[in-house]
């Protein structure tokens, strides 16, 4: 162990299966899905009409100062709330940390403008029923809030959190699709290990339920979701037919082991290693899983662990035919019959928030000694030869977990966390 080891001392989550760790964990133990018909907008023209939506989130309960809401999109609100929960859970007080030694690093998506914000501007550029681009500068902007853009910048979640938490150290935002959260974790770990700061509020946030982003990003990857919404998505199952979009955020307080010990903090987990790799993806050619394999190998080597030291894999499990096949092949080849969980089976794909929200499951599992079951796994697929834990929970036997995320463009991230 080293004083610059990076440890987790606080967790906060806002998700379709619960707000706060207790509600999130209870849903997993009771195998309660957070997927239902879309309520954020009319999905009648969309291929997929179901999603993982946070129905009971009331921003005014979490956002301070309240006036900040006018410049916060849904993504920012979710991230701010999760970060506040994580800091509270950690017990970290302003007196215990120099503001210059505290930073914020968050994964975020490109945030699309709300349709309502553009409605009047768009209509003012119509001429005889046709949109006239030449009118945008003179006719459109006058109908938009002067600060409208601040609601949709990907870096604003980290900015608002840094301002409210008085974190004056590095403030970074990572925007690389589905791997954003775990990439942000890697950056946070390196900053602490270099001795630049002692505390990082790390996390990831996304709301992919804006009607524009919903169809644009989901095109070609959505499940049709015909039938009971709670039976989708179906990671690694033979009957899987695609993913579905979701929203949510999770945040963690990371500290150097030395700083956590100095204030008597409860250590929930240790970040043993992070690895990021890339495999070029060509249109029409299925992914081979090269980056996933390299990520797993590198994470194990950096952590000084063998495959049989790992209790379970927290898989990306996005439920598309080719992506699951590539990931499962890599896991089976390098890790054998290791238990696998697929948190997306509870709430779908959170984009930039995926890694953080899914990571909550493994942190809680390692601390409670119970591995939650994945949902919607009924038909084993010979092309996905992995040991998916389903139907019932399982006792944990080891103290380490491997977390995986992959992106559409070929990025793959592997993270190992332990409670040693």
Molecular structure report:
The chain folds into 2 domains: 374 residues, Peroxisomal Thiolase, Chain A, domain 1; 34 residues, no CATH class. The protein is of the alpha/beta class. The protein is 30% helix and 21% strand. The mean pLDDT is 94. The chain contains 12 helices and 18 strands. A hairpin with a 2-residue loop joins strand 1 and strand 2. Strands 1, 2, 5, 8, 9, 10, 11, 12, 13, 15, 17 and 18 form a 12-stranded mixed sheet that branches. It has a two-stranded antiparallel ribbon with strand order 3-4.
Write the layout of secondary structure elements.
Blueprint (H helix, E strand, L loop, with lengths): L5 E10 L2 E2 L1 H9 L5 E3 L12 E3 L21 H17 L11 E7 L6 H9 L2 E2 L2 E2 L4 H5 L15 H9 L6 E4 L5 H14 L5 E9 L3 H8 L28 E10 H6 L6 E10 L11 H14 L8 E3 L6 H15 L3 E3 L2 H4 L6 H15 L1 E2 L15 E2 L5 E2 L4 E7 L4 E8 L2
Our estimate of the beta-strand percent is 15-25%
Could you say which structural class the secondary elements and strand pairing correspond to? alpha/beta
Number of strands: 18
Please, how many domains? Answer: 2
Global shape: globular
Helix content: 25-40%
Unreliable residue stretches: none
Overall radius of gyration: 21 Å
Order of helices and strands: EEHEEHEHEEHHEHEHEHEHEHEHHEEEEE
